[in-house]
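Narrative summary of target 7.
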Amino acid sequence: MAATMSFTTRIRLYLAGWRPRRDVWERLRLPASLAVFPEAKRILSSFGGLRFGNRNEHVVFDPSDAVADDTELVQRCERAVGRRLYPIGYQEHQDREPILVDEGGAVYMNFGDRLYVVAATFEKVLKTLARAGQAKALEVPPLGSGLTETSWFVGDTVRP
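Modeled conformation, tokenized:
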């Protein structure tokens, strides 16, 4: 994977503690109520525990903390998208914005009451995530992998 990363992204990853063939799977705290699938495990094994940014604005690859404030968010997102999802981390500035992945590798972010697909693969969004605060500037990728929408209502209240 390192060969496909830009030099800047690779430096940000190294400074955060990432190394090629890094495997932190056994040390991760995982949400007890969610079943892990291979794509989520692949991403978290290598990137779990990494943190980018500062106290005010950051991205953290921590699946438990990603959904700690709303334990039913993943289930609402799965129902909306029609796919299994797993939290891989979050972006935080004023609000915590969970980052999820589906079994096919597509990456989603939850902003408020909406879930957005932000990349077809984790590798395509890693450069942006390693620059904390940039995820809101992400462009929605072309639809693929059977997706017919780019955003879904996932709030826990009645749709406005």
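Residues 2-153 form one domain.
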